[in-house]
What we know:
The chain has three helices and eight strands, in the order E-H-E-E-E-E-E-E-E-H-H. The protein has helices at about 5-15, 120-135, 140-155; strands at about 1-5, 30, 35-45, 55-65, 65-70, 80-90, 90-105, 110-115.
Amino acid sequence: MQLDSFEQEKMSRVATLPNNKWEQRRQIRLRLNGRASARIHIVRIGDVRPALPPALVEMLDLSPGGCSFRTGLRFPLRDDAFYLMDWQLEGMTMKIKGQIVWCREDEYGFRYGVRFASGAVETILLVRLLNALILKTCPHQSRIHRLYRSQLDKLLRR
């Protein structure tokens, strides 16, 4: 697992480049190297609550506001589709609802981006998990720790 080393550059470019695609990213995202698996359940599509089993996916990165994952399955990319993701990292089990906001094909199938629709309790637990991951994966990078803490402080004050 690692923090994208170019995240700080992205953060500073946000203020100077108004049409930059990184404007949308408000939080630092941790890349999950290795096999981090999660299960995704389709909770609802419109008024329909499908009775489908959960799918196993590979989580690629994680932030307080969302994640991306890879799978060979095709999921609906709709405003009225809601999902529940659950995974375990660092001995902590997380269950968070969200929506898929983007999809693209890659050599392994499809990559998806999820925006979490979490409440305060889930956000605090996720922030705690991310703090543990960043301290474990980047123990000697105090500048990254300060940047990450300031981003998390802003998130928790909302």
